[in-house]
Amino acid sequence: MTFARGFAAEVGKGLLDLVAGWRESLIQMITFPLFYLLIVLFMGRGQLRADLLLPVLLGMVALTFIHEQVNRVFWSYLGDIQSGVLEQTYLTPLPSAASILGRQVAAVISALPTALAVLATGATAITVQGGRMPFDAQVIVPLAAIVLGTCGLALILCGLTLVFRRIEIVTQLSVAVYAIAGGTLVPLAAMPDPVAALSRLLVPIAPGIEAMRDILLGGHSLATLPTGWGLGWLLIQPLLITAAGVLLFNRLEHLAKRRGTLGRP
Amino acid sequence: MIEIEALTKMYGSAQVRAVDEVSLHIPAGSVFGFLGPNGAGKTTTIKMLAGLLTPTSGQVRLGGFDVVRQRSAAMAQFGAVLEGSRNVYWSLSAWQNLMYFGRLKGLRKAQVSERAEDLLSGLGLWERRDDKVGGFSRGMQQKVAIATALIADPPIVLLDEPTLGLDVEATRVVKDWIAELARELGTTILLTSHQLDVVQELCDRVAVIRRGRLVADLPTRELLAGFRERDKYEIRIEGAAPAGFDAVTREGVTTMSVRVNDPREVYDVVERLRAHGVVLESLTQVQPDLEDVFLALVNEASHA
Known about the structure:
The complex is a heterodimer of chains A (265) and B (304).
Chain A: H1 2-20, H2 22-43, H3 50-83, H4 85-89, H5 96-128, H6 140-163, H7 168-181, H8 193-202, H9 206-216, H10 230-259
Helix pairs in contact in A: 1-5, 2-3, 2-5, 3-5, 3-6, 3-7, 3-9, 6-9, 6-10
Chain B: E1 2-11, E2 16-26, E3 31-35, H1 42-49, E4 57-62, E5 65-66, H2 71-75, E6 78-81, H3 94-104, H4 109-122, H5 138-150, E7 156-160, H6 168-185, E8 188-192, H7 196-202, E9 205-210, E10 213-219, H8 220-226, E11 232-238, E12 247-250, E13 253-259, H9 265-275, E14 280-285, H10 290-303
Keywords (chain A): Membrane, Transmembrane, Transmembrane helix
Organism (chain A): Nonomuraea dietziae
Protein name (chain A): ABC-type polysaccharide/polyol phosphate export permease
């Protein structure tokens, strides 16, 4: 019960931060959809081509989500470390998992408005072009895989920032790599095999994007996904990344307590 | 009750000893002053006490619970205002901060609300409870940090520089609170401050750390008494001092320092002054304050 209170407090604080930073959120809700439309325009040589709108949209929604979720939870950690508040959050009888889980959930919720703005923009553009925005309930599975895998990645980056300085460079770089090699804009099937394999192995959003395209564009079922490594990998990959995140965070938290880096200027 | 046993912290491959075999026993309901110059190992000790830093060896027990092995039970006993850090979220209001930290300590919403109202009213922040802490003065922010430390009503409280940046009135409020917490609620308080007059006024016992080692751990009175200069007196007279006396004159009042081998020799000095027709204003035995004692201890240790 006390765990639930700590968790709820953390989620509540994250949502208060979201409300307090509504201007920044609004700017993101405008720039990311614009970014999406520009990419489709460039790819379509100046035209919003109907055959590009949906595939790019699926990748862009996932990319927007991972960018927002990872950055929000990462910067909240880094900011708390540098200001010294993080140490105060450790002076509680609750395990740090309550706080970490709460931060992750708050970041997921906070990432949704921008991701949904991209989705709404894409759906509108598709409708305007005379197309139809497809929906299949099976898409929930890859979406859930993306959310889980993203949380795992965020845990790894937050763990690293407990111990090492200048980790923000790694965070920015990793999101940039996912944009290029995560199958967001260019499908993994169109990439060199080793790059595609590495992406499917390590990028939290890659199997999810492939599965969403197979379901919504190809009309395939979850059980018969033709591209990528199938349903099994779609489910296992985010679990492995999250497990790695939990283990690594735990180890790095212990290391931070040994080195005294939980609070540093 | 706080028990620290042979606490040691070594850093880096060079195994630098930041804290070296420090042992302290702080009884329940006492106000304990923990002093040390910058870099002496004070903050390292405090962080180990708060479970934020893992000791290389030794043990810390809060209310009988080991901070490392029984962290949850130990932290349930503990609240802290940490020096040099923000302690609270500037983007949240005072009320939101107390609700957040109270629930993070496992309290129910209703419990936190009641306690938060008491604390904010007592610290004179009730009217500003919905304002963002970032817009507060340094003193008001410090008050919110103190309220946060006390939100779960912990039996052990660490106050690291609690009066830093506070004006005279706010300092008085905080000092009264500390005294009241210990006296009426039996809270054990570990206090660190560079404002040694605050420590002297509040603390039952004082420990001084220097280069990672304790150089003193005594009741405040005993510590001061140990440094009392029994042979030194200060005499204030009107006008100039007669020849042969070591004196300083400021704004028409002359202060003379007199050293005697036996307190009874003071009568002879007074007799000599009377013979010169000097009018006495006051005569006092020189009493060291905690600052004198602290400087003496720190310098003594550094010369050793």
